[in-house]
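pinned: reference chain
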Amino acid sequence: MRLEAAIRATPGSFAMGVRDPAAGWLSYVSGWRQPGATFVEWQLNHREHEAVSLSTVMRTCILEHEAARGVPEIVFVGGTSPALGRYCAPAHCLDLLVARHGMSGFIVKQLLTRLRPQSQLGMILRGTLQQLAAAEADEA
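pinned: its structure tokens
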């Protein structure tokens, strides 16, 4: 498998799963480890077993495994299910856009404002552009 070769070639990466000897992989996760934390990037579950919670089973296995290794923090990139969410601290993230002054920065801001007007970044840019327009009008 090319995916497994890519995982093995990446420093700090890991992959683990739950297997049924007859059916093969039931659930498979991959991510990376850094000092003090394990990051679970993605998880794949067998679609023929949707009635059982393979996601919860796999995440329980990885929690037990990493706790036994003494890892103090496990990050599920992109969040987790509501069943496990009550045991997880939410990550507070923000988007930061750094744009150059000039025409290229102006075009990027305009595109983001028009393409994603309801996103947090779109609202921030819209507010910033409105403030800039008001400031320019006051100067004139």
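why pinned: The chain is about 45% helix and 20% strand. The chain has a mean pLDDT of 77.
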